[in-house]
Amino acid sequence: MASAKVSVSEEHFLCSICLDVFNEPVSTPCGHNYCKGCITDYWATSDSNQCPLCKEGFQKTPVLRVNTEFRDMLELFKKTRLAAAVQGSLPRPVVVLCDLCHGMNNKAAKSCLVCLASYCSGHLKPHHSVQALKWHKLIKPVRSLEDRVCKKHNKVIEFFCRKDQSCACIMCLRDNHEMHEVVSLEEEIKDRKTKLKDMKRQVKHNLSKKQNVIQGIQNSVMQDRQELDKIKAETVKTFDALVALIVTRKMELIDLMEGKQKAAEQKAEAFIRQLQLDIAEDSRMSTELEELSKTEDDFTLLKVLPSVSSPSNTTHPFTERVQHLLQVETVRRAMSKMEETLNKQMENITSKVNRVDKKEEPMENVFEDELGYIQKQYAIKVTLDPNTAHPCLILSEDRKQVRDGGTERTVPDNPMRFDSLHFVLGDEGFSTGRFYYEVQLKGQTRWEVGVARESISRKGLGLSLSPDNGCWTLGSYWGRCQANTDPPVILSLSNVSEKVGVFVDYEGGVVSFYDVDARALIYSYTGCAFTASAPFLRNLFRVYSSTPAKTKIYPLFRPSAEDGSDSDPLQITPVKAPKQSSDPVC
User: Does residue 312 register a pLDDT over 90?
Assistant: First the structure.
């Protein structure tokens, strides 16, 4: 069974007599609750036994019993309040009581600086009706009225000396503050309330800024972890493939050598069989000749002397072989060269990983204005390229603004123009160094900004805004901001940024997005492959004759498709560098 969660305010647990939290709560026959001591004292000083709230009278003093259920609720409330106090909750407001009420004191409505007393609404009426009391100065109810009176002159404190930073009465001004800057207490309080608001706003801004920094760090760490997991999986896959390739090549070489050896053994066996037949024939001939040599009839030799066949070839490659199919030293040299090449490639990979850390800017203080340094050092001029703009996009004359008109215009068709996706690229591409630009997005509900390779698909809908397709973008979709990775990373931002800065470090492989107004990092792509490279295994044993040409990347923009021509455009704005900087870069 579902349980309902009830929220009860502190007022429900205040005794209407002492205006404090109940102590031993008891109930009267009419159903009202009071502290046992409060209601007992009230009846003891009153002429009749009646309820202080509803005024219902009783013939004799009722027998009071503790309301056990209400007491249990009260204990739970006290524990909850104590826990809130431990967690730093603010104390409850101080209740100021009327100084003229007896028995059940009422809340004071005003305090009088002349009478030095606090009055409830009923006892305050003379101050509004009696002419002699109308000039009295009434303020919000306070407890310590004696602090509002000058202890030296016994006069009401009405002024504040800004030089001495002290309160003063009219007599103090004459004695000690004659030439000082003095204002009324009301003016000083108003001024200090204004300063308090500014301080609260500043603290809130600092808090928001630090929270954004934390969020940026968390997003960066999360994104780094995702990138690392992807790289680790690819590394394991690549090395497993390399090991499998080596094992396969090893088995192929062993099978080849075994095959060669088997063929040689078969050839040797055939030669041996032939020699054995020849030996048998020679043995038979030797026996026959031996018998003929023992005959005494010489005439027999003339008739039966057998012919002896010519000597067979007894020379075979195995009898004169001095070198093996494959020298062990040859294998060792080949393996040593492969090991050397592998180690060299691994050193290159390791040095690239180490260079990423060295290229990171030193962060002496995480709250320093990193964006200010980027704005001063790397701001560039960016203009839009009309030859790439989708037919629905309308560019301003200075090519700094773009909006989506909703309908396609008649424009020249060319291979560089987007024909389905409502994108436009920057006029200039970059293949080295670092650069930074800013975009105003006020009034935009769906937008995308970032950078893309020059090889980005311009035709059709088959484009996914992901790093694998050469796009590094940030987008907002109906109030939700996300980094367009694969899968997308949803960013937990309190507000979608109205001005975004885009920073690119080509050699470092970094694309970062900043909230310019909050001066906080939104998201960073790291390990970006701006120039597509060949697979690892293909390069492992490859000798590079030259360095491949770098791929250019271009700023990319997509404005919201809003109805009407008066909708706010997406704007490339001038970069306003920090104070000591020179003129802004447009």
Answer: no
Contacts of 131 (CB under 8 A, 6+ apart): none
Residues 83, 45 contacting (CB under 8 angstroms): no
Q: Across the beta sheet with 480-483, what order do the strands follow?
A: 424-425, 553-558, 446-453, 471-477, 480-483, 489-490
- Phi then psi for residue 403, to 5 deg, are -140, 160
Q: Which residues contact 247 (CB under 8 A, 6 or more apart)?
A: none
> What is the spatial distance between Cα 278 and Cα 284, in angstroms, rounded to a whole number?
10
The answer to whether the pTM exceeds 0.85 is: no
Q: SS3 letters for 450-518?
A: EEEECCCCCCCCCCCCCHHHCEEEEEEECCEEEECCCCCEECCCCCCCCEEEEEEECCCCEEEEEECCC
On whether the CB atoms of residues 371 and 514 are closer than 8 A, the answer is yes
Cα→Cα distances 243→247, 248, 536, Å: 6, 8, 13
* Contact predicate 474/500, CB 8 Å: yes
Banded pLDDT at 504 (limits 50, 70, 90):
very high
Q: Give the closest residue to 35 by CA, choosing from 56, 54, 13.
A: 13
Are 120 and 104 a contacting pair, CB within 8 Å? no
pLDDT for 161-191, tens place per residue? 888 888 888 778 877 787 888 888 788 888 8
What is the rounded distance in angstroms from the CA atom of residue 73 to the CA atom of residue 304?
Answer: 140
Interacting residues of 382 by C-beta distance below 8 A, sequence separation 6+: 426, 427, 428, 437, 555, 572
**26 within 8 A of 66, measured Cβ to Cβ:** yes
**31 vs 124: CA distance, rounded Å:** 31
Which ranges in 139-184 belong to alpha helices (H)? 170-176
Do the bridges between strand 138-139 and strand 434-440 make them parallel or antiparallel, or are there none, so unpaired?
unpaired
Is pLDDT at 149 greater than 50 in this prediction?
Answer: yes
| Cβ neighbours around 28 below 10 Å, total | 20
Write down the residue that tokens 């800024």 correspond to: 209
> What backbone torsions phi and psi does residue 303 show, to the nearest 5 degrees?
-95, -35
